[in-house]
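queue> pop job 88
queue> type: inverse folding (structure -> sequence)
queue> payload:
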């Protein structure tokens, strides 16, 4: 393992160069974010899509579900590149998958991978097994947006305020407001500000703007939060359940924010929000201070990062949380 060519960093650099070449000659590009897209997934896809569309390529950006993009992320789509999943070609020419930890995270669009003429993965999840012809996969990157920034730089693309806003949105949200951002990510942010990104304008719709009814919905979820000090090997678990009737009182992107409030409970290392996504189906969002929640998620069939992970499980909420506690206690 002494040769520098074996290092993961060199592998990523090689993949970034290959991605830049693939995108540089592309005429028709389909960019996909993961289902229930967040700012990193959609911002990454839209940043690349915007550059490619300006260069004259035929470009579309999409994701498997839900039907429309989260309201708070729509301002990132300056060129109107977003299309519903049924407008994604059955056999895309070049398929680019952004922030997708597993093929299943493409949801109803997962079949496009095998059908594509060529495919490119850009992701930063340690649990990602790797898929696609070219794989820019780097778990040390704080956000997929960091890797997209590297690819765009390798392409010699001009990153202006429009493209920069998409990248900044992914970077700031995936690092929880730069709490988990290294020096290079801060330098990237500085470059984006120099390119004209208006941080206040990017963040207002994403984190600082909610309908008044959100306050009451949030109060109801937090009111019923539970603390289990013995869970997670005695490190403590704080949990909240969001049944479908409560889900309907939130916008999709707002339910995802609940776990970031729960995780502030001092008594718990792990925070989990169980969101109802079907009659007996729950999507679990986990955050932790020290526990490896990605390992717990993977053990249950999901994935993510050591401090932020997710999995979808079937059953009653109490059973589903018990299954999580069982793997957290190991
Ligand atoms: P979330 O709580 O939904 O923000 O997810 C936390 C992290 O886990 C994100 O990086 C997600 O991409 C990842 N994640 C969530 N659900 C899954 C899943 N079912 N499979 C793989 N990764 C997931
Ligand atoms: Mn994501
Ligand atoms: Mn991400």
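queue> result:
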């Amino acid at each position: 393992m002494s040769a520098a060519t074996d290092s993961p960093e060199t592998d990523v650099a090689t993949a970034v160069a290959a991605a830049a070449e693939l995108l540089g000659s592309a005429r028709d590009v389909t960019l996909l974010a993961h289902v229930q897209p967040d700012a990193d997934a959609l911002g990454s896809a839209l940043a690349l899509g915007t550059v490619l569309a300006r260069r004259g390529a035929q470009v579309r950006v999409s994701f498997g579900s839900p039907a429309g993009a989260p309201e708070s992320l729509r301002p990132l789509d300056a060129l109107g590149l977003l299309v519903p999943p049924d407008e994604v070609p059955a056999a895309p020419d070049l398929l680019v998958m952004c922030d997708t930890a597993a093929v299943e995270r493409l949801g109803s669009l997962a079949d496009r991978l095998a059908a594509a003429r060529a495919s490119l993965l850009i992701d930063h999840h340690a649990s990602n097994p790797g898929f696609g012809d070219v794989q820019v996969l780097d778990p040390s990157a704080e956000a997929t947006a960091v890797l997209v920034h590297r690819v765009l730089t390798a392409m010699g693309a001009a990153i202006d305020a429009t493209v920069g806003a998409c990248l900044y949105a992914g970077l700031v949200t995936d690092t929880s407001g730069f709490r988990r951002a290294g020096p290079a990510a801060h330098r990237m942010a500085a470059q984006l500000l120099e390119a004209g990104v208006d941080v206040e304008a990017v963040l207002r719709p994403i984190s600082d703007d909610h309908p008044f009814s959100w306050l009451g919905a949030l109060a109801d979820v937090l009111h019923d939060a539970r603390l289990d000090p013995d869970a997670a090997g005695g490190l403590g678990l704080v949990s909240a359940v969001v049944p479908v009737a409560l889900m309907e009182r939130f916008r999709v992107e707002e339910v995802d924010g609940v776990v970031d409030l729960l995780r502030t409970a001092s008594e718990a290392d792990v925070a989990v929000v169980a969101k109802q996504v079907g009659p007996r189906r729950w999507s679990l969002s986990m955050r932790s201070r020290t526990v490896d929640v990605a390992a717990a998620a993977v053990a249950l069939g999901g994935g993510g990062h050591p401090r932020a992970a997710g999995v979808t499980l079937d059953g009653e909420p109490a059973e589903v949380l018990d299954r999580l506690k069982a793997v957290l206690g190991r």
